[in-house]
Batch of 4 targets.
Target 1
Amino acid sequence: MQAEVYQILDAIEAGKYKSALSQAAKALKKNKDSVLIKSMMAYATDRTGSPAVALQMCAELIAAKPAVVDDLALQLISSVLRYNKKYNDIATLYSNASQAMPLNLEYSTQYFMSLVRVNNLKLQQLHALKMQKQWKEYKYFFWAVSAIYLQGVEAPEGSPNIFFPLAEKMLEKAKDENQISTFEELYLYVLVLEAQKKYLGCVKLLSSELASRLCKVEAELQYLVLKYMHLAGQTDSVVDLSRDALRSAPDDWRMHLSLVESLHALLLEEHEDLSNVNVEESSDFIRALDFFLELQQEAKDKVKGPFLGQIELLFKFGLYERIQPCLVSYFNRFGTTISFFEDVRRYLDTVPVDSRLSLVSALNDHQIEFTNSSKDLIAACRKRINFYKVKFCFSELLTDGEKEEFTRVLIKEYETSLEMGKDLKATERQYGDDCLVIASLLILDRFDVSRETTLLYHAILLLETGLQKSTSNFQMKIMLVRLYTALGVSQPVVTHSLSLDVKQVLLDTLTYIYADDFERIAPLDVSSTLVKKALAIYNSNDKETPEMLIQAHKFGTYSKIPEFRKFQLRLSNSIQQAISIRQVALTTVLSLSVPNKFEELSTFLKGLDDQKFFLSDAQISALHDNRDRTMDIKWKAGGKSFFGILAAGEEFPAPRTDWIKIYGCVPLAVRTWIHGKSKAADAVDVDKVLQVLESVSDEGGLAVTTVVGLTKYFNKNDSSLLKKVVSSIEAHQANVKTSVSKVACNADLKRIHELFEAISYARIAGTVLAQDSTKNQPEVTEFIKQLGDIDGKFKQHISKLHGALNAQSVEDFQRDRLDSAESVPELVNSQTTRNVLSAALESYKAYLQSLF
Amino acid sequence: MSFLRRFTADDLFKFNNINLDPLTETYNISFYLGYLAQWPDYFVMAESCSGASMGYIMGKAEGDGELWHGHVTALTVAPEYRRMNLAKRLMDVLENVSEKVYNTYFVDLFVRASNSVAIGMYKGFGYTIYRTVLGYYSGPSDNENAYDMRKALPRDVKKKSIIPMKRPIKPEELEW
Ligand SMILES: CC(C)(COP(=O)(O)OP(=O)(O)OC[C@H]1O[C@@H](n2cnc3c(N)ncnc32)[C@H](O)[C@@H]1OP(=O)(O)O)[C@@H](O)C(=O)NCCC(=O)NCCS
């Protein structure tokens, strides 16, 4: 048998699974009971693309008596199970093995790790303690404590938490017995104390001789001590410690913050009511100011800390009028650094409205006038750009004329900067890029008032021009994606979003920028490809993160275990995942709504996982919103952000609570038309689905009305509903016909899409009815006929819109969309303009074409 | 303005402005969490005064005997925060951890032969080119040599680790 086994293994290793299978089948005839051969068969079966059969084989092996205790067989089986995410089965597999051979450390460890994979904390705790008893290693003890701590973290709020005190007791004992031997073990102790708000205990532990022996990086320990001192309210000590730290590391912003915050806390401790205290004369303030001035004296060239720290002090103590001169001198000193504006951004809000313009002009007095070295030229340019940013921050105060002049200056500055940057690599940004960003923001300010789509084109043209010289400027790409989306132009959204190369975890945080509602403006095949991409990260999370939790146990990095767990949950319960799953279902249902794809549609709907699509209110509000909002631009004091202007009063990214409900329930509802009420144990009842849809019908518009009407018809057999569905679609259709006579922006396409979506659902219903001979009542015949009329009219309208665009040359289209009282900024060349307009024209046409 | 702290798994949700840069690769979950699980003190984030992510460094300790060393796996600073000494401060942390926590003989890193900005920078930090690795960066659209740059730490008293190798090597000859 040995030789046969090796042969099969060789075949598996070489990736020849088919041949491995046939060899294994032969070998099995001679060795009927060999679990090893069976497990090799399961493995090869899985790899040849028959996971269901493979899992059945595994199930038999798991149930086998006596339990499987062959190392290789166990590995193969668990690999199949892991690949198919059957994590609970792996736990059973190793539970059996370790019970059969209780002295086998490997099986015992594997069993523990399989419990980690499924997050069974209670069993982890029990098993780890058993392991510690058996093998007398403290590592297992800490595994147990960590599992206890996590049970505390995951315990429902409100109930008394027995886990933290238990973990603390165990750690205290370990410490007394000198069994804490790594910093991570000590850190676990700190976390357990922190969870119980025993901050003083944390400080004590971290200040111990043990801590300094175990933590070799002094700064790290210092930071932790400070953090807990702060929480413990040991304000005096925090002040002393942060001062000390700042003397050696004057650029550590965290230390500045903790110093300033503590000083403020001290002041509050001394005075109940600050309103009648002369803060400037308080000794804490004076001492602090002196300290910063002293640090400033000693500061080396690039060190910003003491200067910004001083501003933070004034800010925290509410001495706003003293901030302005500091801002000017900060600008004078650090205006040439790129991050100047971000450094001071939050203080700019405090400048009183009537002093803002004088601040702007004071900054202007500190520009670098004459230089000739290229290095200085670049510095001077940076400084001017920082000045422009401040000016833009206060641009609410500028007149229209001043804004126009400002835009011209910015574009001029950009052009000059190109010369300095001609040798920059393609991966670097041009020095003047931000000028174009500000100029487009100024254009958008005007758009905010007039809602003239011409202005969107102007902003696009500027940014496209910038992107040609700065091909990797992702900020410009993100702006462009949103601007094109606002116009309802899909092709460049795809191009630019692809060039952002969003992948892995970025899919969770950034997908919203290009994919939100994309199906409303793009042909279905295009949008479904784009929205499907996001799902990859959730699959990776399911597969990879449990293994990394295992790694953290293996390396004893206890502080990372709760961190990884949180990470895992943030992804598995992410809003973006909920959205993407629904978008994929939506685009799939719509693209399969035609009669000749009915079978596919039916299969697709049958396979839906109710638990993923039907979320309760509580589940929805517990979703994690990981969408990265810092991609928005909020440079204006008090004004709207970039996303805000384009979203026209709505929030972007939107919370999408109702949307998640609607598009979770719509496919479940449509499923009942085809498959009737599901009998599956975990299926959601159709009444519940209807109830949710009706509760959000205001938000859901025509699509929801249609689906609700049809679902009721199919489930309640009220034939008058068919008529109602038809008349609401007809009403909307009449409305679209008069309101959308030309495609010019996102809102036009959205209206058309709403109609298209409703017609698609009605079409599905029509197909179901046409197939069902029991349903040939007159209402049904009438419905199918009316549906035909609606569809005909819809296509007529679309074809008219399409025909109008098709008749236009790019030049005609350009004249139509771009030529208004305002001319395109000179910087933009005619080829760019042509490309942009042509992309818009083609996108509109492609979209309309796809609706046929 | 900034401060440095340990990188956490949560930071993976907020490092977009760094990773959208074309020279910074985004890896899979296992890659980042694997480093965090094994070398939590070698993975450091620089955060700005407004809470934005500015840049990070990730590294590891590996090797046997006198080749026990710290390795820079990735160092990157977002475009808007460059030339503020952040890379320098992040490298200081990595060297400090290599010396104090792992007690290594030297620190090394690989850099694209064409990345003149980074090479110049590392030279400024005291690194020298130890050897060339031929075709280290090779993919469908890519074939570029890497420089293996090193800096000796106090444990390597005689600075043996940085005596340059005469001939270039192939990737398969790498020890790790
Ligand atoms: C390379 C990189 C990390 C530098 O980050 P940084 O924070 O700007 O670097 P520092 O401010 O600490 O620079 C330290 C020194 O390096 C040199 N340097 C850095 N960037 C430079 C540049 N663009 N041109 C010339 N010298 C440069 C300078 O001597 C600088 O000191 P100085 O500013 O006092 O003159 C950053 O440009 C980056 O993330 N690039 C993309 C990713 C990458 O290439 N990583 C390296 C891969 S191994």
Target 2
Amino acid sequence: MQEFEYVAPANLEDAIRLMAEKGPRAKALAGGTDILIQLRGGRFQIDRLVDIKKIPELNELSFSEANGLTVGAAVECYRVYEDQTVQKLYPGLFDSASLIGGIQIQGRATVGGNLCNAAPSGDNIPSLIVQEAVAIVAGPNGRRNISVEDFCAGPGRNVLQEGELLVAIHIPTPKPNFGAHFLRFIPRNEMDIAIANSAVSVLLDDSKQHIVSARIAIGSVAPTPVFAREASALLTGKEANEASIEEAAEATKAAASPINDMRGTIDQRIHLVGVLTKRALRTAISRAREG
Amino acid sequence: MSEKIHVHTTINDTEVDFLAESRQSLLEIIRDTLGMTGTKEGCNDGNCGACTVNIDGRIVDSCCVLAVEAEGKNILTIEGVASPEGLHPLQQAFLEEAALQCGICTPGFIVAAKSLLEREPNADEARIRHWLAGNLCRCTGYDKIVRAVLKAGEVMNQGDGAGRATTAAGAGPTDQRDVYND
Ligand SMILES: Cc1cc2nc3c(=O)[nH]c(=O)nc-3n(C[C@H](O)[C@H](O)[C@H](O)COP(=O)(O)OP(=O)(O)OC[C@H]3O[C@@H](n4cnc5c(N)ncnc54)[C@H](O)[C@@H]3O)c2cc1C
């Protein structure tokens, strides 16, 4: 692996300064399950790696009814899926965090790193989008909030500016009658990169027969994970039945613009994203009904 | 910039100091600097699990950890699995079930399976297969490995609580106390 300076600041201010000093030649290190492999593969050259795991604020995983869920940028997938609040209120995130890599990867990989790495296939990203997650970012010019659906800019690129760090991901408290689900298709049973994935969330009315609102986000079918806005809007006010599900899943396919590669073809990916969305919607609706 | 950093850590209950370049993986240091070659290098990119070690109670691929990140941590490698009294039930079961051929993947499987059985000594086949999905074997297939882990779980349920293979499977005390959960 190339040479670089390793620093592990104990507070955010130092981390931002250490990042800003080196501009594009500095990168953050969370669990390292993307970046260490990329560095070893010579994908880019850096002068400094800033380990963010010693910053207390970035290790926070907390929930309050008023503020929702806060997932610090250094919180590993296992902490997320072992958390009882996540299991209950953030079922889509639970689904995706528990299938990233294997147990070894989950012991290190963070949800924040998954987002910042901005892979088209990043499994947590669609789950975050459908639960209306917001990225809390801090940099030399202070803090700002970025909706997760606006965070990824292209394969492996995000909208962070030089010196900026992800501090935490914030997800609002879901309303009653809410349900979410995440599904992906991989050729193996475990440990593979998605050929397509889909996350959905639905909010039902009190009768639990009608959809008040829904969100659908898909991955591995475009340069970034995509919030399928039009398909999501189609479900507003609709009956929570097979016809509505079919219609939304069909419309979701239109939001996909995949490529052919060794993992799958354009046709296969578009087909899969429709099937996954349909199945995810069925489960999300039944989860919303179960309360 | 190849200046070395001093790292103080604990490996297999022994305090260890080493010097590492920031770019060196924990795997490199464990094998090449500390001479503990039980931990294997397979893919060097987090897929095969041959380099699995346990850090602060969580299994990780040591190829995907920088050695400098080990500062202040508590690490278990395969060398720390057996005790002076004998093999760990997992090691014994791997032998009895012939759950290895070339042996490169074995240390990773054992370190990974140990962390599962310590949490869930009654883990069933599906759970074991799921937990070990990050460990690849290219010789035996997985059936014998899974059988060995199931067997070790039984022994650990019946053992003396210290994780030692006090008896062969099935011949232990009938007392089913869950030694790892109390
Ligand atoms: C064997 C294996 C299997 C995998 N399986 C999956 C899978 O099933 N699904 C999936 O989606 N991914 C998978 N991955 C990819 C990877 O594990 C995930 O993307 C993981 O969540 C990355 O998190 P990390 O903490 O390891 O990130 P790191 O590698 O530490 O960082 C990733 C990127 O984000 C940047 N970054 C990290 N934290 C911050 C911050 N706070 N502020 C700004 N930038 C930051 C880093 O600079 C880097 O560019 C797998 C990887 C491996 C090796």
Target 3
Amino acid sequence: MSSATGDLLAFKDYDDFADSAQISVNSPKKVPQNESEPSTPKVSMFQIEFYQQFFNIDTAEVVERIVNSMYPKRATASYLKTNLGVNPDLYGPFWIATTLIFTIAISGNLADFLQKDDFKWHYNFHLVSYASTCIILYVCLMPFVIWSVLKYSVDLSDDSNPDLESAPYIPSLLSIVCLYGYSLAVYIPVSVLWTIQISFLQWVLVLGGAFLSGSVLINVLMPSIKLSKYSLFLIIGIASAHFILAAGFMLWLFHVPSSSSHHIDSVVTHEIIISAQNQTG
Amino acid sequence: MDFDNERIDISDDLSGSMTISGGSKRLRGMKGTDFDTLDEPIKETILRDVRAVYTKFKNVLHPQRKNNILKEWDLWGPLVLCTFMATILQSSSENGENDGGPEFAEVFVIVWLGAIVVTINSKLLGGQISFFQSVCVLGYCLTPLGLSLLVCKILLILFSQSTFIFLLRLLASGAGFAWATYASVIFMENSQPPKRKALAIYPMFLFYFIISWLVASHTH
């Protein structure tokens, strides 16, 4: 071959463009916005790497967050800013919500089965869709309401250094969603225990669960709520919404007295039918 | 292979052989370079896929660690299993009203959507497995649950309802659930990032738990 074609056909060495093709998914050091940080190259939201930044979490960290959501004073005072604010994840909220939906649906069916007292499984499979609507609405709407109230009412024009612990701080929407998602974790064992058909125990579970995770919610959000004009309303709103969620599920699906009257009804109709048959027969 | 010297025979009919000189047998052994599948009988084509599906079923029923079920995926097995389970699990309308069980389409949606969600979760956490390979593995690992559904159905048909039969059915679906989870963990655990294995495996556990609940609560 001639040298000219040899030049054309020989391998050429190009500069190493490896750096420009790299995508950094490290968690940013300050409060993240909804788009990617200016320090990392922009990743399109149609690529999976964009969503990987919300799942950048290890098993130990997830377990830590779940435990923190159940014990009121366990998280540090600046938990929101230094932990959830820096690396909010969507793994916890999504899978805890999904587990809760199915635990409630299965336990609800179990409770119904125990209340009816025969071996026919009257299962209402569509409980799954009702339960999921409630839970997903709760996890999406409440954080949005809180975030918008905080954004509207907290004045961030403080001159102090934003890295100080006492500087005013509004959590991002994602951190609040993350916090709410993890706070549902306590209801998973509670919903399994709700199948025990003792009314007093069921109410104790409602109060205990709502109190534990509600107080964690308020404690963690307190640094930001304090700054708002509507702090009292926020606290009352958060606590009551949490309690209503728990009480609502318990009363709708698991509560004993409504079923005992149903049982009495079915026994009574049975007896009426038998006596009618005896009369005609 | 000497392409330059191949002569095209232009005699009375212009039909020529498409085979490369040297014959087809030589190439059949090479992986992926099977040029002659156009010529083989249809029975051979179908049997090749059937054999692949059958091997995968065998691998699921007897899971071993070093296994190349992941290398070539196919979705025939999951489709057959899903259709079979949905047909049995769908609610019967013998009393003229819906007895509250899942419809045929709902079972389909649960199985396929569940497999897709578990796969996406694994990929988002940084797993090194491709999308369809993961869906394939999750679908094939439904085999033990299909078997336990068959056992439950037979128990229901042969015997009348009682606590003992109920416990047997519970046992059957529990065994199916444990086997399915074990098999899928064995196939998938090596492709997950080291500190997040539990995070990737928990959704599989939940997926098979939900399906085994569907199996256990089927009472007709």
Target 4
Amino acid sequence: MSSRSEAITCEFCIALQVRVLYCITGASSLVLKPKTTDDVSRIMAHCDKRHLAVVPQGGNTGLVGGSVPVFDEVVLSTALMNKILDLDEISGVVTCQAGCILETLDDHVAERGLAMPLDLGAKASCHIGGNVSTSAGGLRLIRYGSLHGSVLGLEAVLASGEVLDCMSGMRKDNTGYDLKQLLIGSEGTLGVVTKVAILCPSRPAAVNVALLACNSFADVLKTLQKGKAMLSEILSAFELIDSASMMAVEKYLHLRNPLSSGEFYCLIETSGSHAGHDEEKLTAFLDSVMEEGSVCDGTVAQGITQQKDLWALRERVAEALLREGYTYKYDVSLPTRHFYDIVVDMRRHLAGAAVLGCYGYGHVGDGNVHLNVTTRQYDADVGHRIEPYVFEWVRGRHGSISAEHGLGFKKRDFIHYSKAASAVAWMKRFKTLMDPNGILNPYKTLPE
Amino acid sequence: MGVLGPKMAFRVLVGCKRVIDYAVKVRVKPDKTGVVTDGVKHSLNPFDEIAIEEAVRLKEKKIATEIVAVSCGPPKCQEVLRTALAMGADRGIHIEVPDEEYASLQPIHVSKILAKLAAQEEASMIIVGKQAIDDDCNQTAQMTAAFLDWPQATFASKIEKTNGDLLVTREVDGGLETIKVKLPAVLSTDLRLNEPRYATLPNIMKAKKKKIDKKKPADLGVDITQHVEVLKVEEPPVRQAGVIIENAEQLVSKLREAGHIQ
């Protein structure tokens, strides 16, 4: 192994093995921190020869246990692969190693008037390689699309140690099969992403954040439709916080809800190049929804600090629920009209169980709801009442049982609720083809 | 305005300055004549926001009868007046100062303007932020009081009205000081006075219909000739990295090297 890299054992292992929301712990005793693609290639070749299992790990902020070892797999951390290699101002393409932290990349491209095309709560810790490997969604997907669109090129090391070079800075490239699409979202089971080239949009010069209160979910849908129609190209986020989630951030984190009424809260953000133009559109939109009664109260942030405070009401819900007890987390995609039905049905379904609360919040703009159920501590009975009911419910609406979090360790066995058996069979064939010895992130993503 | 009966008008004048937003990373211009303001997010000076909030609370307690927000500067200042109106101020006054002259506008000019306005508007109280977060001058309240020969209560963290006086708790080095000042008076706000409200939609809409009068400093007989010339603006020196020292001998030799000891 290259002497330039580091092999660290003992105390680092504990930190790297405990999943961010305290659910899963593995028992690895070796963490490797390569610095270059070549290092990764030698590590994988060695492990493949000796049939040693490897868990690629970025910021370890995943929510389905995809980045932690289950047994004694070797942890391959991208922490030291954090070089930004290039930024093309004209095309807006940033090229970097997989271990760059998302926020660091965003700060870097900001200096050239650009922004990273995704944003999520874990931005200060997550690595771009991990984001790409899980095809992270985030808060602004309705504006900037998914990583399947914004990743223009990537480089990955396969199980054998072979370097798969799919690097490109081209917006359009129809030369053969687009292999990188297979790797995006493959959760480190088909290859270790080592380099990425990402298309960055212009950084908005004018940002507005508004929090609106609605009395019913039907009103939320009306507001959403109006927002898409009237705010149109400047709409950059449309998030939902239900009243239970709002009460949680008020109670456990002492955050301030500026609105006094409302069953549902919509956090809306606009991003554009011209403050006057955006304000005019926003004012017209607010006038319209207030007049027709779909919005009963609301506020527009005055200043950046108020914008951050309003965003915190949405971004810190998960943290607030952690304070309540153990959280059963579900991240599902549904037809937007059914977004909140799952929460209502789950509440009804769990009535009488030892449940503290049932919460629904998330990306109502793209139909992705975060359903959370809390109990005092982990309760297997409650777990069985929720699953597989929740997955069957989602299947019934032809939704996805994991919108953006991925399958990882926790949800691998539920893949058939959202994917046809034949599709899963082909996934397994690809896995066998690319990782014949099954050393890359075993026990993850695909069922046994 | 409705009939007030025996109660007198209690008009509060609130100074509102448009400054670079608190959360923005400020950059010095390459020519070192100032900081970059083009395309940079601006908002109402946080301490002035606290002043507006306090004035609105006084009105809600039926102590104040009218709140007039004042801002001096180029047309963009109307943005902060709109914020003040959305929070509950009744009307605004924009003292028009064009960009070139605004660059050299100082607290001494602003305080003369506020003093003249207070007389014109028959104000019972002037409240401003203790300082603006761009220049950190902390002078306007004090100078305004001097020009009017009114009492001043600065760094207020609590304001109570008792008959014709105000009981004001001030934040001072070493603790809190409570003083009684006769009205009319000039106050400046400190951080812990209150937590400003969010402007809610109905009020934001109403604010668009509220009046903003325009005046020029000359209309008030105030001369805003430049008093101060900025020679150079620089970033603070980059913090030097520290050095970790192994033992006392090394410390002594390093101190000697740097010339701190013989």
